[in-house]
Structures
1.
Amino acid sequence: MQRITPIILAGGVGSRLWPMSRESFPKQFLKISDAPSLFQQTVQRFQSAGFTRPIIVTNEDYRFHVVEQMGEIGTLPELILLEPCSRNTAGAVLAAVHMLAGRDPAALCIVSPADHLITDRAGFIQAIGKGVPAAMSGQLVTFGVTPDRAETGYGYLELEKAPSPNSEPVPVLSFTEKPDLPTAARMMADGCHLWNAGIFLFRTEDMQAAFARHAPDITTRVKAALAKKEPDLGFTRLDKGAWEALPDISLDYAVMEHADNICAVPYDGHWSDLGSWHGYWREESGADPAQKGVVTLGNAHAIDCEGSLLMSEKPEQVIVGLGLRDLVAVAMKDAVLVADRHRSDQIGVVVRHLQSKGASQAAIRSQDFRPWGWFEELVAGPGFKVKLITVHPRGVLSLQSHAHRAEHWVVVSGSASVTIGDRTRDLTANQSIYVPQGEVHRLENTGTTDAVLIEVQTGPYLGEDDIVRYEDAYARG
């Protein structure tokens, strides 16, 4: 089999799993129950002899999450393309295709979202193999999941005929977005419809031709964004102005629904896009009647509950449900969601409401991830703020100063090298240092384990925008 280049789309926000998934740290990077993240699982899915190293397309805000999580599973990308802003999947796919076609105009590639759950890796790879001959003959191949219920949260593919037992590719007649329940039941019953998994296999030249025919304006703008691309610390940053001019449109809407060379490979294995808390509950609830469809995650307890999901983010935070029926209750440090499980696909309404009220919780988690590690606000009041800071080995904060605050750093564990003005001091556990207001300073972890610190800020203004960077190892503005 010709080697296939995976194109992994990792720029989504995943707001329907709020408050766990937020714009600052979306669902593809989350690690729930200590399992690898969905992004890591997607990368691992394509780690075999039949595939090359992947091309990752992601938002520039997530670039260091991608690098860190790929490092954790011991793999390297072929390329990381950075989108200056989100413009859905059409532009992202075409940009990756153009980059790959520059090396091999007939390269075979597969596009996959980074936030889907596929547990039957062998069966999925086998399905890809079924699609290769069709893709090599000029077809745009998509993958459809055999439905096991009348699902209103997924799109559907209408096939020319019912799939054969050997799962050979079948021509696609039409695409249907999320249907109502009677329509979904009818499509499931007729045997000629599959769930649309949003995964595509094709040669680069065929996808380029499809865009040129059906979406030439996207082709023009993507080429403009690539013409002014810039290298950035091992990433490739697309031109912001050209990218912002792109329409916000999916690959399905832009190309696939209009092309006449589409076929689908049926996939009978397990698949879920985990697009809502109801979907997550379905994955975790299992078939044990004794549990009565109750899912508890973290320090969560259910008493006389049925069909509900309870989750606590922190071990020290307990959540107890009593007599709940078909509810979702997710408790995080800075936000709590309580919702009818059957309406959990409408969480976007919650996020938009919070945004309209100016609530930071709509997009930002209390644990703020940075390229050097992360920090979490512990407590704040008038004139002070206390943070827990973790700096990974070789992590280094920018050389910076603050106009309105002073800082006290206490090392809890590990070691840190602190520069203040023209002096550098090495600190270990139980040692501290004071950074005066306005003083130029930097902290670096030169050790081999995480450096954990408590930071106490004092001053009249303690916003994160009170920072002037003079040097930055991560090229942030």
2.
Amino acid sequence: MKKIFAAALAVSMITLFAGCSKQDNAERKVIIYSNADDEAVVSVKKALDSNGYEGKYIFQSFGTSELGGKLFAEGNDIEADLITMSSFYIESTQAQNNMYKPLEFEAKKVINTPNYYTPLLAIQGAVIVNTKLLEEKGLPYPKSIKDMGNEMYKDLVSVVDPMGSTTAWLMVQALIASYGEDGTKAALKGIYNNAGPHLELSGSGPIKKIRAGEVAVGFGLRHQAVRDKKNGLPIDFVDPVEGNFALTESVAVINKKKYNPLAMKMAECIIKNARADIIKDYPVVIYEGETVDAENQASNSKVFDQPLTTQLLKAHQELSESCK
């Protein structure tokens, strides 16, 4: 009788613990790590909260380099279940750590991506000008990124340092694609010389100085200049002859040992429900059926002819450093 009782008790305890484990997994909140800017974070949280996931996730924001370092160092041991992150970091960390699950939902993209991530948003670069200051100085619009190195724009240029923000990488990609490395070095030396103290570490640094009339020309994010122009500021933009290159930020699910299936459902929810708001702030078409206003359609969209990786970014940063 004692043996029968002990066996029954053991079975009961196993059943109890198994039930608790299932319950704990079901109730465990999804941890989301993100490098997204505030506008995108608002859209992501709105999509989740309005579709039944309010209170079921913990959202933590990081700088791109900080989050990238965690992904490389921790792999699928990272605390996060779900991330939104620059796509080139996702590809590079997948190559090193094999840390993402294939997505279990369909997203009809107009661009090709691997099966373990899908884009959340895209940004494009452009030359930005202060129309009032150009007129006061009697200067023409630059037609290219390279033109910003012309002596006529001395001390009137602001661009981003590639060591500070990947916004600058859009500029460097365009130059390398058009002029090769030697031509890019010559162009960057002229641009950096003209920029002087207006070489910024923040991606939004140049457009802030252009808005304030501190400089007349610069390089930044196209959609910000379009918005400023619409709002009546003396701002205009130029799609440079070298091309409007783009970077994407994407959603990926960590292939964790203690995988939470809710993370995959939230990833699907974000893509299917946040894009309607996100495309208003980042007006670049990524999925079938999306449309943007004519002014938000870059006239010279291009894609770099090599896969974008952290290794390639480092090489381009080193090239840039040699031009200072």
